[in-house]
Structure formats: structure tokens, C-alpha cells
Amino acid sequence: MSWISLLIAGFFEVFWATTMKLSHGFSKLNFSILTIIGITLSFIFLAQATKHLNLSIAYPVWTGIGAVGSILIGVFIFKDQLSVTTIIFIILLVISIIGIKLTS
Fold it and tell me: Which segments cross the bilayer (predicted)?
């Protein structure tokens, strides 16, 4: 159940980062409110996950999910461009997250 909480926390990490971008510097109220809700839920689920997972495992996985998810949103929704080198490092990040999960 802790890993599910951590995945949900990671989802809300991506959610709030996306809505923050859509808020245009907190100038759009609806997206600003969604950002605050997303941040709150992300932290709540992270806190739930850390009840049973070590912080040294939960935090890097949470930030990794947020990073990779935000990159994917950036590429597919906002049409961000990535260099080949950046893509290689993203792949290494995903491998690292999987490695942390497998070895914990």
C-alpha cells in the first residue's frame, strides 16, 4: 500500500507542476487553485508512503516520478524539445528509479 501511495504522490507531483505552468505565474485562478490542491495531495500521499517506506527510498522515487512525468508532459503537451543527451539521462533516471524499487 505504501508504494501505491508513493505512486499517487508522484502523480500529483506531475499534476501540480503541470497546473502551475497552466496558471501562467499564478495569474489564472482556476489553475492556481488546482496547483495548491495538487501540492497538498502530493505531500499527503508522500507522508502516507513514508510511514512504512524509508525516506531514503520514498523521496528519490517521488521526485523521480515527478521529474520524468513532468518531462513527458512537457514533451507531449507543451511540445518541449529534448536533445539526445537529455533523453539518455532521462532513461538513466528511469532505470535508477526502477533500481531503487527493486533493491528496497
Answer: 27-47, 59-78, 84-103
